[in-house]
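Why Tabersonine 16-O-methyltransferase-like? Reviewers of the renewal asked for a concrete example.
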Amino acid sequence: MELTTACGEGGDELLQSQTLLWSQIFSYIDSMALKCAVELGIPDAIHSHGPHITLAELMSSLSLSPTKTPHMRRLMRILTNSRIFTCSGEKVYSLTPLSGLLVERNNNNNKKKKTSCLNGFVLAVLHPVFMNSFQSTSNWLRGNEDTPFSVAHGCGFWDMTHRDPEFNRVFNEGMASDAQFLMDVLLKDCGHMFQGLESLMDVGGGTGSAAIAVSKAFPEVKCSVLDLQQVVDPIHNEGEIDFIFGDMFEYIPPANAILLKVIIY
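Here is what the prediction returned.
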């Protein structure tokens, strides 16, 4: 009996289709493995040992039980296949440019300033509160709710940040790490854009990472942050940065320039 799909395919095409289907089904494993690597501190462990580390050395550095070695080997295989790390010889692991973005601290022997770490962004985007929203997409399309998020959690995104302080902390740290990374690159390569400004309004600037970076690089620029009340309230105005609570869709305080970065969720 010949097997075919609804499209009439058979034989090799059928198996190729199954392979693609499996790839789609299990693609979430790469993201979860990345999250695990960040939570365990694997990039820092490799960097501190540097430039290479064996599996046994990695297990010891992370204070993991030797009984978990086979499982750790499988995790590292996933991470090397997704090019987070490289593996050579007898299971010797090294950082890649990608995992270099996940290193929180410099090697004591390396005096060169490193680019900001994006660990916080990884943990924010892969937080269960965000991930659970995707589980509700089909119910959202069938219903009348505004977003899959509201279907999954029974409230809007900003209401959730108010209800769940831990999620709010993770989210703010994630946005701050992404902003700091971007500003490190922007100020290095395009810093001339800020020359001559007297004032800058960072709209939706969260905890102020971008504004603080600009203020440090250009002390003559008066930097302010506009964000929602639940974001701004816990923050005390410090130094040259003013934190203003408000809704950008209602009013944006005047400034020579306005900075907009990841403002629509």
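The chain has a mean pLDDT of 89. This is the kind of structural detail the renewal will allow us to pursue systematically.
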